[in-house]
Amino acid sequence: MSHHKIEVKNLHFTYPDDHEAVKNMSFVIHHGESVGIIGANGAGKSTLLMLLMGVLFPDRGEVLVGDVHVTKKTLPLIRQRLGIVFQNPDDQLFMTTVYDDVAFGPRNYKLDEKEVAERVKQALDMVGIYHLKDRAPYKLSGGEKRAAAIASVLSMQPDVLIMDEPTAALDPKSRRRVIQLLNGFKHTKIITSHDLDMTYETCQRIIVIQNGEIAADGPREEILTNEELLDRCGLEMPLSLQNCPVCGHKKSVIRLAGTN
Length: 260
Ligand code: ATP
Prior knowledge:
single chain; alpha/beta; Rossmann fold; 6-stranded mixed sheet; 4-stranded antiparallel sheet; 10 helices; binds adenosine-5'-triphosphate
């Protein structure tokens, strides 16, 4: 499973206006890990994801997926291995039906229609929206669109699932469904989010980014209960880990950690 490994070595990226958004980042994500990437607005999370996916290329350092360097030449292979769900589902859905959107990736792999149909059904069943297969994506609700966008990535059966703000603008029920879905995906996951409660429930490991640099990298119980670190990085402890605002009762980290 070494091809599921992602290695970031001394990564550095500067936007054309000379803004240094990623500075000397290094980390390794191994097969099966669930990693939350958190940080305040403008910390560099989306830029990092774009560097992982080969949407942007570093001015120094490198990204390896398995043994393959992310370069323009290797992009087709990288895109097969890494599936990204963008923050805005409208960036991902462009066909006239949900079915065709979810079938788009498998058809691109030149699979026959029978296999395409199987992959579409499997992906739509996983996100619980098979009944919406003939609907136009632009007519769906926010939560339904998010589910369709996730299905359009799952149908390509990626080794690594990358999600940018998967719970943004979702109602509690849709948010819960996305959390369950993420916990059901057993391959490697990389999730960026400001929803630290969701991050706590779905990611075992947390990387904190501040001003384009890695401020901390460790187990969720260590990072997400470290008030001083979170405060320094412009973040707050997940609500589920904070003391009760009425009686001050301290919530149990151990109990929450067992919910996964
Ligand atoms: P947010 O949580 O607000 O989405 P983020 O952590 O994803 O933020 P990025 O979008 O990666 O942060 O931005 C990192 C830094 O790079 C910010 O200071 C941002 O202003 C800057 N930046 C982003 N895109 C560009 C661009 N196209 N040109 C110049 N600077 C940019």
